[in-house]
């Protein structure tokens, strides 16, 4: 039994003629007749009464017709659902991002979603090492990370593309003694108290160690850290682009201050993806939105 045979049953029942059904189906009458005969042998029943007066359904044929209509309708519905799912799936992306991209990604999502009404995005925030380890296992479509090219080249299951270069800075509130400075030096930062994001990249942790900073709090709640910085005399390490357009930075409640040191304080931003994932137009558009935002293009 196959779907074509069921379609033939429905068409013959509607047309009450094999020849008319065959014409409508664009196949030969003998082809239709053979298919029905084969189905009748398989089911061990007669579906149609054949006489000079035409074709009529048997009692068993009435049941076959009813179930054939039901099955074909279900098949049609399934095809429509799969088509809708496929279209949605193409526009759905599972994206991971390192903490430095948290606020960048919010602004990017506004722009991207505004241009792609049907797009859906699942966003996960993790540290770069966790993202790289989970990239394939978690089925991420792409991820935004902070890393060196050498580190990424060690991975044999990812594609990577350079996005931008970020300068390491600090962020302070108005109560900080550093707030009025245009830049800070290593001496300024010595023994200062800091708060750190739980998944801060290793370079930030190395800086805290280098400057002999006391880490008074670690948290994965970004807003908690922001509030403590606003109200206290502590700071945290950020990239110059991380909170560039954050409302409290724009209003002056928070201030991003560069560290006056060597090129060691620059880090590279990358977009990575599993080599098994195809490069779609949706991904390319999203990546362009990220690059534009990092480079100040709106």
Automatic annotation (TrEMBL):
Q: Extract the coiled-coil ranges from the record.
A: none
Q: Name all HTH lysR-type domain ranges.
A: 1-58
InterPro entries from the xrefs?
A: LysR_HTH_N, LysR_subst-bd, WH-like_DNA-bd_sf, WH_DNA-bd_sf
Whether DNA-binding counts among this entry's keywords is: yes
Q: Does the keyword DNA-binding apply?
A: yes
Extract the SUPFAM superfamilies matched here. Periplasmic binding protein-like II, Winged helix' DNA-binding domain
What domain of life? Answer: Bacteria
- One matching Pfam family, short form? LysR_substrate
**Which keywords does this chain's UniProt record carry?**
DNA-binding, Transcription, Transcription regulation
Its family remark reads: Belongs to the LysR transcriptional regulatory family.
- Which PANTHER family is this protein grouped with? HTH-TYPE TRANSCRIPTIONAL REGULATOR (PTHR30126), HTH-TYPE TRANSCRIPTIONAL REGULATOR GLTR (PTHR30126:SF40)
| Name of this chain's protein | HTH lysR-type domain-containing protein
Species assigned in the record: Gottfriedia luciferensis
